[in-house]
Design goal:
single chain, alpha/beta, Serine Threonine Protein Phosphatase 5, Tetratricopeptide repeat, Rossmann fold, two-stranded antiparallel ribbon
Length: 354
């Protein structure tokens, strides 16, 4: 692979040769092709199934000679003849953990770097010394790698979030019994929100009505636990029974400049500023003063809120949940009515069957 023997490599691939097979000193054919800038060979090996993220097991000449009990000159010659003789590798440095992308970067082979990235090479893989490929690259190649690092990190985070959400309903059911339908509705809403993203000006807010003890608050806690991974500040609980007076609004968003305590901010805005994608629970929302609910209108309508200092917090990626015991008597009456109707239908079906 040092020289561009494209036809020979195609023949080997067609014959079913293991293209990921390692040299006795640890490198693969793709490593060799990448460091020598053989673009066609790189393409052929990748087409044949070469793994772009395999790490080199070669350290350096001295260490490999000790490990293999071979002559130092022999290992040096093998590295030069079988790997590369280009004057770009330091014989004293360790190359353990290098991928094909590391070698393409250190050789300043921009075309090879592009091909590897297109074929799934991970630009975030670190060597034994904790170094990523872009650290070895020149200006143009370095910029290309850094752009893909950002994209790769974003993609990985999105996949991780989607994977977590896909199992959200199952996980929450392990903690809350007898509320399958509400759990399904909430988790479906979260999945839809995740697909839309925060750029569509769609705020995710839910209103949980029900008697005390049915699991409203616990459901909100479980959403915060699994969606935001229980990171510090990821779950914000505001007891709205503490905001029954009109002036309590200052406790929520903070006092204006010039008033005592304005530098501390409000309970809600201070925490949202630190974690704008938090899960926010407004517990017993019906007990809050109407003026406070008016302030929250901006939050639910546009996904942003302004604190007492005039700082606007964009929290379109947050999840807002309100709980209330409103109409508790009517809900219980409706539930009892439905239960009685169900029992009547079951008795009728049982009678007809017999």
């Amino acid at each position: 692979c040092k020289s561009s023997r494209h036809k020979n490599n195609s023949k080997l691939a067609a014959e079913g040769i293991n293209v990921n097979r390692r040299h006795r000193f640890g490198w693969t054919a793709l490593h060799v092709a990448a460091v020598n800038g053989n673009v066609e060979t790189v393409q052929t090996l990748l087409d044949a199934g070469a793994d772009p993220n395999l790490r080199d097991e070669f350290t350096n000449v001295e260490i490999m000679a000790k490990i293999t009990h071979l002559d130092l000159a022999y290992v040096f010659k093998a590295r030069e003849n079988d790997f590369t003789d280009r004057p770009l590798l330091d014989k004293d440095c360790t190359y353990y953990g290098f991928t094909a992308l590391h070698y393409a970067a250190i050789a300043d082979e921009e075309e090879t770097v592009k091909i590897l990235l297109e074929r799934g090479a991970d630009p975030t893989i670190e060597t034994e010394t904790g170094t990523r490929p872009h650290s070895y690259a020149t200006t143009d190649v370095r910029q290309l790698l850094l752009q893909h690092v950002a994209k790769f990190d974003d993609t990985r985070r999105e996949k991780g979030a989607l994977k977590t959400i896909s199992y959200l309903e199952q996980k929450i059911r392990q903690h809350i019994i007898g509320q399958d339908y509400p759990i399904k509705i909430v988790t479906s809403s979260i999945r839809r929100k995740k697909m839309v993203g925060p750029t569509m000006n769609v705020l995710l807010s839910s209103f949980f009505l029900g008697s005390s003890g049915v699991g409203k608050t616990e459901l909100a806690k479980q959403v915060g636990k699994y969606v935001r991974k229980v990171r510090s500040g990821s779950f914000i609980r505001i007891d709205m029974s503490e905001f029954q007076q009109k002036h309590d609004i200052q406790k929520l968003i903070g006092t204006p400049p010039g008033y005592s305590g304005y530098e501390y901010g409000g309970q809600l805005t201070k925490q949202l500023k630190n974690y704008p994608s938090a899960v926010v629970l407004f517990d017993e929302i019906d007990k809050a003063h109407p003026e406070i609910l008016t302030v929250l209108l901006q939050l639910f309508d546009e996904g942003r809120i302004t604190n007492g200092l005039g700082y606007t917090i964009d929290c379109r990626n947050a999840i807002f949940i309100m709980t209330s015991n409103l109409a508790n008597d009517k809900i219980i009456a409706c539930v009892n009515k439905l239960r009685n109707e169900k029992e009547g239908i079951m008795k009728k079906l049982s009678y007809e069957k017999n």
